[in-house]
Design goal:
By secondary structure, this protein is mainly alpha-helical. The protein is 50% helix and 10% strand. It is built from 5 helices and 2 strands, in the order βαααααβ. The chain has a two-stranded antiparallel ribbon. The mean pLDDT is 89. This is Transcriptional regulator. InterPro entries: Cro/C1-type_HTH, Lambda_DNA-bd_dom_sf. It holds the Pfam family HTH_26.
């Protein structure tokens, strides 16, 4: 399972810089970079909400689920 963060895509669509987004959302450039590069282990809902407000988008525009290639229908949810 992989989760892909598509902030770069939304920034390009909105013609917004990472610096602008950082200022509007109220998070540091370092933390935004960690999120943008897929290195974050978690995101607060309030941060996600602020990113969606700044980019005028839905959470699904930013976060994408990519199933494993070897997954099957018998996968058990814990």
């Amino acid at each position: 399972m992989a989760i892909r963060i598509n902030i770069d895509v939304m920034l390009a669509k909105r013609k917004m810089s990472v610096t602008e987004l950082s200022e509007q959302v109220g998070i540091t450039m370092a933390n935004l970079s960690i999120l943008k590069n897929g290195k974050a282990k978690a995101i607060r809902f309030s941060t996600l909400e602020n990113i969606c407000k700044a980019l005028n988008c839905q959470p699904g525009d930013i976060i994408e689920y990519l199933p494993d290639d070897d997954s099957d229908d018998s996968t058990q949810i814990n």
